[in-house]
Amino acid sequence: LGHIEVVKLLVAHGAEVTCKDKKSYTPLHAAASSGMISVVKYLLDLGVDMNEPNAYGNTPLHVACYNGQDVVVNELIDCGANVNQMNEKGFTPLHFAAASTHGALCLELLVCNGADVNMKVGDSKAIRSLLTRQYV
């Protein structure tokens, strides 16, 4: 069985798709982080909250961006994920994509879908200045 078949089997036997671990990670966080697009789509079809934060305030979009999961990022954005959602420290998915060594396509997807490149965290520079320095 593949991942999606296992998830469907678990759900059919009563598994709770909104459950959280001790750090408030949901099944959607796990699927988004790992790039399991079929599981992500299935969970979204079941109506799970795509903007649900974990204990650190990170949404599935944050973790997908950090891990460079561009297909998942695209799906989450298409389904209405908040591209400017801040975590507990004020970081958005755009910050996570910029911090990732493999998040370039995620950066493009976020910016093309309304991510605020002028957003600052505390006294730091706007993400735009960090991006300009990184890619020029």
UniProtKB/TrEMBL annotation:
GO terms for biological process: innate immune response. This is ANR28 phosphatase. ANK repeats lie at residues 1-22, 23-55, 56-88, 89-122. Keywords: ANK repeat, Repeat. The keyword Repeat applies. PANTHER family: MASK PROTEIN, PROTEIN KINASE DOMAIN-CONTAINING PROTEIN. GO terms for cellular component: cytoplasm. It comes from the Eukaryota. The keyword Zinc-finger does not apply.
